[in-house]
């Protein structure tokens, strides 16, 4: 009597049972091995890159305005020491953990927003100039009491209610920014007074 080959259904079921048995064995083995301090590399959820890179957080605090700028970079472990050696004296390590470092520097100046932008808007019934792009009383530079809201043309009043931001060209050197902004603000304010 000849033995018939198993049907397609039996072969499929046998394959599924074999795969499930293998998966259960691997998972159970992984749990047992991890308890003993061993790891299976293909079950480790952390990527290879996280073991070979150091994540550095660069935090710059601008003391004149209180703003902060945070940037993140990752460096290969082999390059990390040379990166740290190349840092200027302004950077201080504030926290160091496995694969993570936080650096801090404090600058006695304004952030880019408060240094390179001026807002002209109506504030307390007058045309005012602020450092930055928000009408924050801490950064009020000029309050033009000679240009009252009530005296403005309707078009100028509507425009200045939402605020007009003047931004200096990014190519202007850092030290020339205040003078450049002062000129542009003066020209704009003179135009308002003439209406």
Number-wise, the strands total 8
Assign the structural class, choosing from mainly alpha, mainly beta, alpha/beta, alpha+beta, or little secondary structure: alpha+beta
* Percent of sequence in beta strands: 25-35%
Name the average pLDDT: 85
The profile of the biggest β sheet is: 4 strands, mixed
Q: Which oligomeric state applies?
A: single chain
Molecular structure report:
It is elongated, with a radius of gyration of 32 Å. Helix content is 38%, strand content 30%. It is an alpha+beta fold. 9% of the residues are buried. It has helices at residues 8-35, 48-52, 77-85, 112-116, 154-162, 177-194, and strands at 53-62, 68-76, 92-97, 100-107, 117-123, 126-131, 140-148, 164-167. The model is unreliable at 46-50 (pLDDT under 50). The protein folds into two domains: 49-107, Roll (Ubiquitin-like (UB roll)); 113-194, no CATH class. β6 (126-131) and β7 form a beta hairpin. A four-stranded mixed β-sheet has the order 2-1-4-3. A four-stranded antiparallel β-sheet has the order 7-6-5-8. It contains six helices and eight strands, in the order ααββαββαβββαβα. The longest helix is centred in the N-terminal third of the chain and has 28 residues, at 8-35. The N and C termini lie far apart (112 Å).
